[in-house]
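Team,

Forwarding the record for the chain on the shared tracking sheet. I've put the sequence and predicted structure together so nobody has to dig through attachments.
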Amino acid sequence: MKGENSKAGSKTGSKGQTTSAGPRKLATISKQGTRQPANNNGTAPGKAKGQGTGKRRSAAPERLFTQMSASQIRAAERIMLGFRLRTVGLGFRTQSFSRMPTSSGNSGAWHLELMRGFVQWAARMQEQGLSVTAALDILVFGKSCRAVDKARRKRNGFAKENLMKSLYLFECEFL
């Protein structure tokens, strides 16, 4: 069969070619079928040491939330939930003729209150001259403050300052 090899420790490449799997990393086979050896420094082929593969996750959101107070985190969670409730839509529900379970409490009123609070907060933000989209980029979409600063072509620290002011505004008026 194509790609089978009786040697122990061998793997099949994308074109049925085998590469040896020794103590070093496997070599990669390019689209042209040529073999490119893996670097010994742990980086991807064609990358210099220190460039890496670009898959490093930023620790900025975790650091940002550790600097916030409990009420600021609560405000951030309510803003995120209000945004999601406002933008998700109603969706579809399958029809079932069996008995539907009853809910405990009035969640519809709570959702409505969150959406109203979000819309009023966004209007107050615009009145105050703060950027709603910059705050939402950080809170809802998980962008870093540096990425928001760069995307808006603002000075360093604009996004964090805007976020802290927006959380303070939500705390004072809607919590």
